[in-house]
Structure formats: C-alpha cells, structure tokens
Amino acid sequence: MRKHFVVTVALLFLIPFVGAFHPQHNTAGDYDQEAVRKRLDGMIAASADGVLMLSFSRCPFCMKAKSILRSKGAAFKVVELDTDVDGKGIRAEMANTIGRTSVPAIWIGGKFIGGCNDGPSDFNGLVKLDETGKLNAMLGAVSAI
C-alpha cells in the first residue's frame, strides 16, 4: 500500500513537468513570433558589415568570447538575451535559424561562426578561428578591427 502511495504522489508531482520535454513545448512563453523573427533577421543582416553576438550577461563562454574580441580591439554588437525584452523569443527563433539555442551565437560578415568553442565545421567557433589565425582576417574583412 505504501509503495502504491509513493508512486502515485511521485506521478502527480511529475505530471506538470512532462509537457516541458515535449518537442513542441515553447519555453519562450508568448511572444510576437513575426516581430521577433523580423528583428533577429534584421540583426543577422546587419552583421554582414560587422560582428553580432547573442549572449547572456553572466555566461562564462559569452564572457570569454567578448574578451577575445575586445583583446583584438574589435567593434561588435552584443544583444544580452537575459536582459533584452525579446530575449526568450529571440532564443526560440535561433533554433529555427541556426538549429540551436546555445549562447554565445556569433555572426561575422553575416556568417554564423558558432559560439566560443563550437560551431559549423567551416569555422568551429571563435576560439578555433583565433587559434588558426582566421579570426583577424574575418574581422578585418568587415572593418571590425
């Protein structure tokens, strides 16, 4: 009897959380999808002539990426998703655009280069671009340095 009670209580506790694991669950809450999508597309388009980083203000990988760019004297635009009014929506729309929601998400010259330590195989993220010497060339090509 006690075992049945424990299982029942455990199930009652877990039921509200089951929806969170459903692939269609939207953790961003309600947002104007069209307006947020347009804003994200606009930011990415503007990065064709510069550098865009979608970030969280206290994320260690974001801080490292910003530090690398600052050490090069690079001009870059940062959108802190944890404080931006559209942050949760932008993050949700990132999944549709680049197939991921992790930060930092960095574009240079309109190309998604990934995050700090990871990204598409052409770039593999900011650290790898810096280690291979390609970062300076990319930043120079968009007059960021």
UniProtKB/TrEMBL annotation:
Q: Pfam families per the record? A: Glutaredoxin
Q: Which residues form the signal peptide?
A: 1-20
| Annotated GO biological process | cellular response to oxidative stress
Recorded hits in SUPFAM superfamilies, A to Z, give: Thioredoxin-like
Q: Does the keyword Cell membrane apply?
A: no
Segments forming domain Glutaredoxin: 51-113
Instruction: Answer whether the UniProt record assigns the keyword Signal to this protein.
Output: yes
Q: Which UniProt keywords apply?
A: Signal
InterPro entries named in the record:
Glutaredoxin (IPR002109), Glutaredoxin_subgr (IPR014025), Thioredoxin-like_sf (IPR036249)
Could you tell me one molecular function GO term of this UniProt entry?
glutathione disulfide oxidoreductase activity
Source organism superkingdom = Eukaryota
Give the GO cellular component terms, alphabetically: cytoplasm
Report what the protein is called. Answer: Glutaredoxin domain-containing protein
Where does this protein come from, organism-wise?
Corethron hystrix
